[in-house]
Amino acid sequence: MLVLTRKLNESIMIGDNIEITVLAVDGEQIKLGINAPKQVEIHRKEIYLAIQQENSDALKSESTILTSLSEYFKKKNQ
Q1: Any one cellular component term from GO for this entry (predicted)?
Q2: Domain segments of the chain: what residues?
Q3: Which of 1, 28, 45, 59 has the fewest CB atoms inside 10 Å of its own CB, making it the most exposed?
Q4: Which pLDDT band, with edges at 50, 70 and 90, does 18 fall under?
C-alpha cells in the first residue's frame, strides 16, 4: 500500500485522468473530491463490496433457477 501525506486543497493523481483532492479535514473525517472520467465507477468500499455480494448472490440464484427448470423439463419429458 502506498501511503501519501496531503494537506488541505492538495491532490494526488492516479494515472493521467483521475485526480483526488483533499477538500476538508474535520477531526477524524476527511472530504475528498474525485475528478475522473464518467465511465470510471467510483464507490465507497462498503458499497462496492455490497454490489459484489449482490452480483454473486444473483449468479447463484440464476444457477439454481436454471437447474430447477432443467429438472422440471426432464421429469416432464419422461
Answers
A1: cytosol
A2: 1-37, 43-78
A3: 1
A4: very high
Count the helix, strand and coil residues of the chain and give each as a percent rounded to the nearest 5. 40, 25, 35
Contact 11, 20 (CB under 8 A): yes
18 contacts 40 by C-beta, under 8 angstroms: yes
The H or E element containing residue 32 is strand 29-35
**Percent of the chain residues topping a pLDDT of 90:** 68
Task: Identify the residue whose cell numbers are 449468479.
Answer: 59
Residue 63 pLDDT exceeds 70: no
Neighbours of 33 (CB within 10 A): 12
C-alpha cell at 34: 474525485
- For residue 18, the 8-state DSSP code is E
